[in-house]
Write a structure and sequence with these properties.
The complex is a heterodimer.
Chain A (H helix, E strand, L loop, with lengths): L3 E3 L3 E4 L5 E7 L5 E8 L3 E8 L6 E2 L6 E7 L2 E6 L8 E8 L9 E2 L3 E5 L1
Parallel strand pairs in A: 2-11
Antiparallel strand pairs in A: 1-3, 3-8, 4-5, 4-9, 5-6, 7-8, 9-10, 9-11
Chain B lengths: L2 E4 L3 E5 L4 E3 L1 E4 L4 E8 L5 E7 L5 E3 L5 E5 L4 E6 L8 E9 L9 E2 L3 E6 L1
Parallel strand pairs in B: 2-12
Antiparallel strand pairs in B: 1-4, 3-9, 5-6, 5-10, 7-8, 8-9, 10-11, 10-12
């Protein structure tokens, strides 16, 4: 079974803090993704990566950056956290080639910015 | 860019009732279509998917969905729901030519509550 893990289930941070959300997958997947999930808005894609050191902006990249130094790990960075970044953050991964469209999700990190 | 519209934000049904959740997408080209489910306190997980072939696809737990290309729709159905089907359901689309590496576009979700 594919396993996608996220470093924290819950985080509480203060406005202006730098925040790191970590995601690790154990299936050697090329593609990794960060989404945020908000009530009534569904999931929205923040950033994705299709290879080590490669990154692409999703639909809502403003205020975020990412890092992919190793294939199994994809980090989401909030350079200066703001209250409107309070949300549930979901990481996902998918294999290369046929079937790349099927994504496997982690349990999520619920972030509260005060 | 593609977009996904889910018709109902909240649906309440009694056990054994039939279910149909609507999903429409907008994209002119080839698409891959998905339904994901999130049970309370659990991971988002794949319910079923359509890439090509038979437009009627069957997924886990007795769910099925029908792709109707002329209507840009991919509605989710279950003939008889159970209390354990209480969850949030998301329809998602990915442009078929993208190879899957560029992420999914999700609808806003439908919160389904099944009353015993």
């Amino acid at each position: 079974d594919v396993k996608v893990t996220q470093s924290s289930r819950y985080l509480v941070k203060r406005t202006g803090e730098k925040v790191f959300l970590e995601c690790v997958q154990d299936m050697d997947h090329e593609n990794m993704f960060w989404y945020r999930q908000d009530p009534g808005l569904g999931l929205r894609l923040i950033y994705f990566s299709y290879d080590v050191k490669m990154k692409e902006k999703g639909d809502i990249p403003e205020g975020y950056s990412v890092s992919r130094e190793k294939k199994e790990r994809f980090s989401l960075i909030l350079e200066s956290a703001s209250t409107n970044q309070t949300s549930m953050y979901l990481c996902a991964s998918s294999p290369p080639g046929q079937g790349a469209e099927t994504q496997y999700f982690g349990p999520g990190t619920r972030l509260l910015v005060l | 860019a593609q977009s996904v519209s889910q018709h109902n934000h909240h649906v309440i049904l009694s056990e054994a009732a039939s279910l149909e959740l609507g999903c429409n997408y907008s994209y002119g080209g080839t698409v891959n279509l998905f339904w994901y489910v999130q049970y309370p306190g659990q991971h988002l997980q794949l319910l079923l998917k359509y890439f090509s072939g038979d437009p009627l696809v069957k997924g886990i737990k007795g769910f099925e969905a029908e792709f109707i290309k002329s209507k840009f729709s991919f509605n989710l159905r279950k003939p008889s729901v159970q209390w354990s089907d209480t969850a949030e359901y998301f329809c998602a689309v990915n442009a078929g030519s993208g190879g899957g590496a560029d992420g999914l576009t999700f609808g806003k979700g439908t919160h389904l509550i099944i009353q015993p």
